[in-house]
Specification:
The chain is mostly helical and about 240 residues long. It contains nine helices and no strands. The protein has a single domain, classed as Up-down Bundle (Fumarate Reductase Cytochrome B subunit). Helix 1 packs parallel to helix 9 and helix 2 packs antiparallel against helix 4. The structure holds protoporphyrin IX containing FE. Protoporphyrin IX containing FE (HEM) binds next to helix 2, helix 4, helix 6, helix 7 and helix 9.
Length: about 240
């Protein structure tokens, strides 16, 4: 059972994620979109969307530091377990709360704005339930286990298991020593990754990041003399 949950399921979820993304791109290239509903409602979206997106970006960075970077590296850099714990709990709580408030606003908006609710598919609802469950369990771990409880050094088990999956040497026993809430959080995350390619979450891989640095688009009128305006006498001002 332990091997099934911590060896078979992670690879099943990863396969579903990678093959699913290829399949979706191949067969539904034009459906690869966030299916924005900004044109239906903008007031709540203007708050909910940045809160959620900046919050989840912070959470992602926190996961990279906590799961991908080995504890020995940060110890060698002079960061003690207590120091790491303090940093993780404070930044995790701030970004986590931003994510939760943003997500609640987005869900409220989706339910309370009839035009937005009408364009909400069953897959969207499944995605929101899964995403909400992963985030809720993450917050439970951060606030209840790590902040209010005694805390658990997850970099000694959960993080090592996480990396072992990507080295193709999965060590299921490591997850057995983790608190149940950490196990549930990781399991739900696998479910989210398996569902990902079939939802609007695919837009994560086509975020228009290049937009920030792209050159301006310069609009020019066609031929000034071909327009309805009668040509002026003499020189025309450049750029008119
Ligand atoms: C297998 C994958 C994952 C593992 C092993 C994992 C593990 C963890 C751990 C150990 C914590 C506690 C961090 C701390 O308080 O120091 C945490 C918190 C959290 N996780 Fe995950 N996580 C995974 C995937 C995800 C995903 C996919 C999401 C969201 C889409 C997510 C959202 C959160 C949130 C919102 C928190 C609370 C805020 C924070 O500490 O950053 N997690 N996770």
């Amino acid at each position: 059972m332990t091997s099934f949950v911590w060896v078979v399921l992670p690879y099943a979820a990863l396969t579903c994620f990678i093959v699913g993304l290829f399949w979706r791109y191949r067969y539904d290239k034009f459906g690869w979109t966030s299916r924005s509903s900004q044109m239906y409602e903008n007031r709540l979206l203007a708050w909910g969307s940045p809160l959620f997106h900046f919050g989840i970006l912070g959470v992602l960075l926190g996961h990279i530091v906590g799961l991908v970077v080995p504890e020995t590296w940060t110890t060698r850099l002079g960061l003690s377990e207590e120091g790491y714990h303090l940093m993780a709990v404070t930044t995790g709580s701030v970004f986590g709360l931003m994510t939760v408030v943003g997500l609640l606003l987005l869900i409220y908006r989706r339910r309370s704005t009839p035009s937005v609710f009408r364009v909400t598919t069953r897959m969207d609802k499944a995605m929101y339930v899964m995403l909400g469950a992963v985030i809720a369990m993450g917050m439970y771990n951060s606030l209840v286990v790590q902040l209010l409880g005694g805390g658990h050094d997850y970099r000694a088990d959960v993080a090592v298991w996480f990396r072992s999956v990507f080295w193709f040497q999965p060590d299921a026993a490591l997850m057995q020593s983790a608190p149940l809430s950490f196990q549930i959080h990781a399991l739900l995350a696998m479910g989210l990754f398996a569902l990902w390619p079939f939802t609007r979450l695919v837009h994560v891989f086509s975020a228009p990041v290049g937009y920030l640095a792209r050159p301006y688009i310069v609009y020019r009128s066609r031929d000034a003399h071909g327009s309805a305006r009668a040509p002026r006498r003499g020189w025309e001002k450049i750029g008119s």
